[in-house]
Design a protein that fits this description.
Shape: globular
Number of domains: 4
Strand content: 5-15%
Distance between the termini: 56 Å
CATH superfamily of the largest domain: Phosphoenolpyruvate-binding domains
Bound molecules: phosphoenolpyruvate, magnesium ion
Length: 609
């Protein structure tokens, strides 16, 4: 016995597991910083059985297997219904539509006939027959380039896992509730996995798959669970029970952080909370420069939900309503009445503050199931936004009718995304006139004087801003796309992310051309891309003549404080130097100098890095 004890004390060094601190970078999907224990979900779905391992059944067992299969389908349907109801009661209705796709899969007659056919003809058990059929679909859909179809393969895998688990008599893997809330780490989280997460027991999640627009990310933001997606080769380095920091602001996960790192993050979190509390107390202060220029600070929204948040963060209206989210995750387009109800509610909730509704910007990386499968070689250069709407005028007319009618109930403005030529704008305006006269003929109430704007997000639009300005009431610069299209850098591709430079002199020149053309024609220019909510760019944007900044509500306070500390004169000087800089870094430096000297707390508290 004594020997044993002695042995334990002289364990060779290699047997002692030293856990090193490792930092991983991913895509920030839902904001917040947490520190906790990891729960590793090794396998979210039950494995699909491979054909080789199949044991044949006798002819006498065929009916029994078909019954077993039908029962599993029935149980799966009931399970999906419970999930859908749960999501519907706690989240937005359209997010629950994710599960409609799951229903369609378990109710698909041809798929089911193939399974019963395989049981009857090949004498294989129900689970093997079902997995073979599903595997075929999953493989076919995963192989295509189309990101939407790839996501659908996830849905099929999810449903397949559920059916198989019922066939195997297994319970769906339930989240193990421990006394302490945990951080979920997994390769994927399917929509139903995500919906199963209980915010009271889940601190955050970090997964390898996904993008900002995948279902898991959408649900995480709604559930206010900090999240990181797109964590490359992450799971292999992690064990159940590891400790981890998740920074959902920056998309950083730190595995086994040292005490010093934990302390650093605790301080960061405290600083963020303190600053946020201060900024929340400033929401009533005017967003005015020291020399008296007012800048409108508006919110970007994806739905009409939570209007109280806009007030809470001090938003002066909505500068960008991304309506495409009303069209996603559902099998049918929203009707005119459904859209009208949403737009009307937003307008009413904002009590006369402006709400800028952008017409449908579907396409690119944002796809709607109801549009059917889309295959494009270069989707960001393809049939997206206004192009897609002009190719399907009925779609645009329905949306315009809903927006114009809702305009009676508040201060709604409408804007068109991805305009690249006068022809496109003319076509959209012609459709608008037709819609107005239809509404008039039908004696329906609508806002006939609604202000119309154009998004400037393609370099061509900035270059012809003078002509565009003569036909509309305002410009809103979509810097996310303007940077992407000016610099030929895919905004979603992490491999070229270093080249994605918002202060590139070419981008700044295009912004300046836009504001100058607008001013010459007596219209105003705002920015609704991510640059608007990032304080590092505020002095330059102000100096270039931007009068409205629209951003995620949570960052409005930061930008308000900055605006209250700068004069337009200073901003113009910074912008002028930035415009003539040789590089993006040099341009940015002029703005950073101001921030570092005047408000370092904003730099540290908003978005580092
Ligand atoms: C933009 O491009 O800057 C923009 C606001 O639109 P989205 O991000 O929806 O493309
Ligand atoms: Mg855009």
């Amino acid at each position: 016995m004594k020997n044993n004890t002695a042995k334990r004390t002289v364990l060779p060094f290699r047997d002692i597991k030293v856990k090193r601190e490792i930092m991983f970078h991913g895509i920030p999907a839902s904001p917040g910083i947490v520190y906790g224990t990891v729960m590793l979900l090794k396998n979210n779905s039950v494995e699909v059985v491979s054909a080789e391992k199949v044991q044949n059944i006798s002819s006498g067992q065929v009916q029994e297997e078909i019954k077993r299969f039908e029962k599993a389908l029935q149980e799966t349907q009931e399970e999906i219904k419970v999930l859908r109801d749960r999501v519907q009661s706690s989240l937005k209705a359209h997010e629950a539509n994710i599960f409609d796709a799951h229903f369609l899969i378990v109710q698909d007659k041809s798929l089911m006939n193939q399974v019963t056919g395989a049981i009857t003809e090949k004498y294989i058990p129900a689970d093997a027959a079902f997995s073979q059929v599903m595997q075929k679909y999953i493989t076919a859909m995963s192989a295509v380039e189309d990101p939407y179809l790839k996501e659908r393969a996830m849905d099929i895998k999810d449903v397949a896992g559920r059916v198989l688990s019922h066939l195997h008599g297994l319970e769906i893997q339930q989240q193990k509730h421990s006394s302490e809330p945990q951080i979920i780490v997994a390769k994927d989280l399917t929509p139903s996995d995500t919906a199963m997460l209980d915010p009271a027991h889940v601190l955050a999640f970090a997964i390898e798959s996904g993008s900002k627009t995948s279902h898991s990310a959408i649900l995480a933001r709604s559930m206010k669970i900090p999240a990181i997606v797109g964590m490359n080769r992450f799971v292999q380095s992690i064990e159940d029970g590891d400790r981890m920091i998740v920074d959902g602001f920056l998309g950083i996960a730190i595995l086994n952080p040292t005490e010093a790192t934990v302390e650093l993050y605790k301080e960061k979190e405290k600083t963020k909370a303190r600053l946020m509390a201060e900024l929340m107390r400033e929401t009533r202060l005017r967003s005015e420069t020291t020399d008296g220029y007012t800048i409108q600070l508006a919110a970007n929204v994806e739905s009409g939900e939570h209007p109280e948040e806009l007030k809470q963060y001090g938003a002066a209206g909505v500068g960008l309503f991304r309506t495409e989210y009303l069209f996603m995750n559902r099998e049918q387009m929203p009707t005119e009445e459904e859209q009208f109800a949403v737009y009307r509610k937003v307008a009413e909730n904002l009590n006369g503050e402006a709400v800028i509704i952008r017409t449908l910007d579907i396409g690119g990386d944002k796809l709607a199931a109801a549009m059917g499968p889309v295959h494009e070689q270069n989707p960001f250069l393809g049939l997206r936004a206004i192009r897609l709407c002009l190719a399907n005028p009925q779609l645009l007319q329905t949306q315009m009718r809903a927006i114009l009618r809702a305009g009676v109930y508040g201060n709604i403005k409408m804007m068109f995304p991805m305009i690249s030529s006068i022809n496109e704008l003319n076509q959209a305006l012609d459709i608008l006139e037709k819609v107005k006269s239809d509404l008039q003929n039908a004696n329906m109430r609508f806002d006939g004087d609604m202000e119309i704007g154009v998004m400037i997000e393609i370099p061509a639009a900035a270059l012809i801003a003078e002509q565009l300005a003569k036909k509309v009431d305002f410009f809103s610069i979509g810097t996310n796309d303007l940077v992407q299209y000016t610099l030929a850098v895919d905004r979603n591709n992490e491999k070229v992310s270093k080249l994605y430079e918002p202060t590139h002199p070419a981008v700044l020149q295009l912004i300046a051309m836009t504001t100058r053309a607008a001013a010459r024609n007596g219209i105003w220019t705002g920015v609704c891309g991510e640059m608007a909510g990032d304080p590092r760019y505020t002095p330059i944007l102000l100096g270039l003549g931007i009068v409205e900044l629209s951003m995620p509500p949570m960052v409005i306070g930061h930008i308000r404080r900055l605006i209250r500390k700068i004069s337009m004169h200073e901003a113009e000087k910074i912008a002028e130097k930035a415009l003539h800089a040789e590089t993006a870094a040099e341009a940015l430096r002029y703005s950073m100098d101001f921030l570092e000297n005047n408000m370092p707390e904003i730099l540290a508290g908003a978005r580092e890095g």
